[in-house]
TrEMBL record:
<feature type="binding site">
    <location>
        <position position="143"/>
    </location>
    <ligand>
        <name>sn-glycerol 3-phosphate</name>
    </ligand>
</feature>
<dbReference type="GO" id="GO:0005975">
    <property type="term" value="P:carbohydrate metabolic process"/>
</dbReference>
<feature type="binding site">
    <location>
        <position position="260"/>
    </location>
    <ligand>
        <name>sn-glycerol 3-phosphate</name>
    </ligand>
</feature>
<dbReference type="InterPro" id="IPR013328">
    <property type="entry name" value="6PGD_dom2"/>
</dbReference>
<feature type="binding site">
    <location>
        <position position="249"/>
    </location>
    <ligand>
        <name>sn-glycerol 3-phosphate</name>
    </ligand>
</feature>
<feature type="active site" description="Proton acceptor">
    <location>
        <position position="196"/>
    </location>
</feature>
<feature type="binding site">
    <location>
        <begin position="9"/>
        <end position="14"/>
    </location>
    <ligand>
        <name>NAD(+)</name>
    </ligand>
</feature>
<comment type="pathway">
    <text>Membrane lipid metabolism; glycerophospholipid metabolism.</text>
</comment>
<keyword id="KW-0963">Cytoplasm</keyword>
<dbReference type="Pfam" id="PF07479">
    <property type="entry name" value="NAD_Gly3P_dh_C"/>
</dbReference>
<keyword id="KW-0520">NAD</keyword>
<feature type="binding site">
    <location>
        <position position="110"/>
    </location>
    <ligand>
        <name>NADPH</name>
    </ligand>
</feature>
<feature type="binding site">
    <location>
        <position position="141"/>
    </location>
    <ligand>
        <name>sn-glycerol 3-phosphate</name>
    </ligand>
</feature>
<feature type="binding site">
    <location>
        <position position="196"/>
    </location>
    <ligand>
        <name>sn-glycerol 3-phosphate</name>
    </ligand>
</feature>
<dbReference type="GO" id="GO:0046167">
    <property type="term" value="P:glycerol-3-phosphate biosynthetic process"/>
</dbReference>
<dbReference type="InterPro" id="IPR011128">
    <property type="entry name" value="G3P_DH_NAD-dep_N"/>
</dbReference>
<feature type="binding site">
    <location>
        <position position="145"/>
    </location>
    <ligand>
        <name>NADPH</name>
    </ligand>
</feature>
């Protein structure tokens, strides 16, 4: 089965997912808003700003024109930053209407839209009319682009309200090293994917401060409890959070220097200023915006999320990290469950 697939977003994750699809024999069109990046991909077959020491197949073609990338596609994979999802989706909707297309919609971005607090599948459904799309699927799980690039064993989840849509994503992505499971709980998968970046910030900060494995394990475990509480308040299945897009994604993101959220937290823990961390990271740090969204959601819904609140106070209110940790540790004793 060879499909025509547009991959929107040529960052590290988008370009490597495009490579996986290309390797599977699909006609893949990788779109970027940056003409210089497109030229590099098409002439040098590299994407050096995002993925060093990796050469893409010449059969993978990059586009700077969105309409050309979407011509007669069977599926569209969104891998753009959260803040760009709505604007890109609106452009896509106009093109799909003009071309009278109804492709599968998949996204592999991880975040919550600011101010609206909406999951990314909800944003796609709002911006792209039902007559110009099939069901929305999210692909998520413990997956660093750098590891997928070297064909390390990777397992992810394809979640959708439509079993057929989830199976479609499973089929187009499956390789000998990239295994895809299906899950009907799109709410839980999207919330787990977004909020684990908050915990990665905290884990990086603990490392930067010199704390050991006990502290990191405590943060990850109690952080997962917070994610589960917020997710289930929206109707997510609590089992999702002990799966690939819950505990799996937390492990990979909160323990590895490949995670830009972990690296950002590490630098903050070492005393770097937030603006400096953002400026020299060179890529979007999704956990920063997600922390604000999750904190505001927790207050709106009355969900206890003390770790998220502490990280919010450090990032947005300038609280000293060690003070925030001390206050967390001195909270009144309570039952674990």
């Amino acid at each position: 089965m060879s499909e025509k697939i547009a991959v929107l977003g040529a960052g590290s994750w988008g370009s490597i997912l495009a490579s996986v699809l290309d390797e599977n024999g699909h006609d893949v069109r990788l779109w970027s808003y940056n003409p210089k990046q497109v030229e590099e991909l098409n002439t040098q077959h590299t994407n050096t700003h995002y993925i060093k020491d990796f050469t893409f197949s010449p059969s993978l073609v990059a586009y700077s024109d969105l309409a050309s990338a979407l011509d007669n596609v069977d599926a569209i994979l969104f891998v753009v930053p959260t803040k760009a999802i709505r604007s890109v989706a609106a452009q896509v909707a106009t093109i799909l209407k003009e071309k009278n297309l109804q492709p599968e919609l998949i996204h592999a971005s991880k975040g919550i839209e600011q101010k609206t607090y909406k999951r990314l599948s909800q944003v796609l459904e709002e911006e792209i009319p039902a007559e110009n799309r099939k069901a929305v699927t999210v692909v998520s799980g413990p997956s660093h682009a750098e590891d997928v690039a070297r064909k390390d064993i990777t397992l992810v989840t394809a979640a959708s309200l439509s079993p057929d849509a989830a199976k479609y994503a499973q089929k187009i992505f499956m390789t000998s090293y990239f295994r895809v499971y299906t899950n009907p709980d799109i709410i839980g998968v999207e919330i787990g994917a977004a909020l684990k970046n908050i915990i990665a910030l905290g884990a990086g900060a603990l490392h930067g401060l010199g704390y050991g494995d006990n502290a990191k394990a405590a943060l990850m475990t109690r952080g997962l409890a917070e994610i589960s509480r917020l997710g289930t308040s929206f109707g997510a299945d609590p089992m999702t959070f002990i799966g690939l897009s819950g505990v799996g994604d937390i492990i990979v993101t909160a323990t590895s220097a490949n995670s830009r959220n972990w690296r950002a937290g590490d630098e903050l823990g070492r005393g770097e200023k937030l603006d400096d961390v953002i400026n020299h990271m060179g890529m979007v740090i999704e956990g920063l915006a997600t922390t604000k969204a999750a904190y505001e959601l927790s207050r709106e819904r009355g969900v206890s999320m003390p770790i998220t609140e502490a990280i919010y106070q450090v990032i947005y209110e300038g609280k000293d990290i060690r003070t925030a940790i001390s206050e967390l540790m001195q909270r009144e004793g309570r039952s674990e469950f």
